[in-house]
Amino acid sequence: MKNDIQPRVWLEVDLSAIQENFHTIKEKVRNVKVMAVLKANAYGLGVKEIAQALEEVGVSRFGVAELKEALAIREFSNLPIQILGGILDSEIKLAIENDIICPIGSVDRAKKISQVAEKLEKEAIGHILIDTGMGRLGLVYDEKRVIKEIEEILNISNLRVEGIYTHYSIANVPSNTHTNNQLKRFNSILKEFPDTFKIIHSANSDAINNFPNTYFNMVRTGINLYGVFDLKGRRIYSLKPTISFKSKIIDIRKLKKDSPIGYGCEYILKEDTLVATICVGYADGVPLAMSNKGEVLIDGKRFPMIGRVSMDYITVDLGIDTSIKIGEDVVLIGKSGRYEITVEDIARVKNTHPYDIICSISNRVKRIYI
């Protein structure tokens, strides 16, 4: 049966704005190669649609967190796809069969990849990951030992080491000592292997904005593609907003002064007012932290959320005189008239970072591509 029900909650994703942001980033990084990081279904926005839009404008390759994400992209794209984190033994065979670029975080892992590739009668492709101070994955930096490990990896059969990379832990803070030390360590390794690696990359979105000396010949960008920045650090380019999170008013009722609103009776009306009930809640991605703190936009005006955010609904104080009607659109992220609510605005209310806000918009929310 065809489902023609209009969604109560939806997320508009502007693909042309994402393409424009890609061009802006590409120009700012001096036209080095750009990897689009599309982890977690492109941060929950829809990997197929976004990947195809980026492929149209010349993205070099795609970066993902794990094999399942890589295989989802391989179904429709022949561009290089790279796993940036770790890889399990059970995943290596499928990765090699589908020409997925493997992360190499240890000599033992390189040997395992080689063994599987030999059985498949194929050459695996990999990038060596150096842990310069993230403390999570990769060859742990110790100058003498790591040089020997890299040399050993480079001599392993059935494994073509295409590149080398590292990842910064606090690149969102300009000029911090830790990031500079990470870069210094990475450079000390590269000095020992001139002309060895075809691709060298270290900069993520934060480093692109705060550490231009980290670009090498490829950068990785994720959240900046969507017009969103970390709350700290510089913003070296102007990006277009790409998402609008919307819902509808399902009811409007006049309630009297001292009426309690929502679970826990955490808000008591200070005067008679019109209260709108909006059919969106924390099951859709509205943070619970926005209870009694957040705002929405309706018909070009701002209105405060009142009461606790529930699973399926929020309530909003419309004031006593309003022309707003049941069924009107409500903007939770995006623009209405001269006002705008950004992902960063919501991140500040929740005391988190913007990645968390985007990734928390649930699968219940319909994605609409414009």
Gyration radius (Cα, Å) is 24 Å
Q: Which residue ranges are poorly predicted, with pLDDT under 50 across at least 5 consecutive positions?
A: none
Tally of discrete structural domains = 2
| Average pLDDT | 96
Which term fits the overall shape?
Answer: elongated
The total of beta strands comes to 20
**What CATH architecture of the largest domain do you see?**
Alpha-Beta Barrel
What is the CATH superfamily of the largest domain? Alanine racemase
Q: How much helix, percentage-wise, in residues? A: 25-40%
Structural class: alpha/beta
Q: Separation of termini?
A: 25 Å
Written account of the structure:
This protein folds into 2 domains: 32-226, TIM Barrel, CATH 3.20.20.10; 243-369, Lyase, Ornithine Decarboxylase, Chain A, domain 1. The chain is 29% helix and 26% strand. It has 11 helices and 20 strands. The protein has helices spanning 15-28, 39-43, 47-56, 67-74, 89-97, 107-120, 143-154, 177-192, 205-210, 343-350, 354-359, and strands at residues 10-13, 33-37, 61-64, 81-83, 102-104, 124-131, 139-140, 159-166, 199-201, 218-221, 243-255, 260-261, 267-268, 273-278, 295-298, 301-306, 314-319, 329-336, 339-341, 366-369. Strands 1, 11, 14, 15, 16, 17, 18, 19 and 20 form a 9-stranded mixed β-sheet that branches. Strands 5, 6, 7, 8 and 9 form a 5-stranded parallel β-sheet that branches. α1 (15-28) packs across α3. The radius of gyration is 24 Å and the shape is elongated. The mean pLDDT is 96.
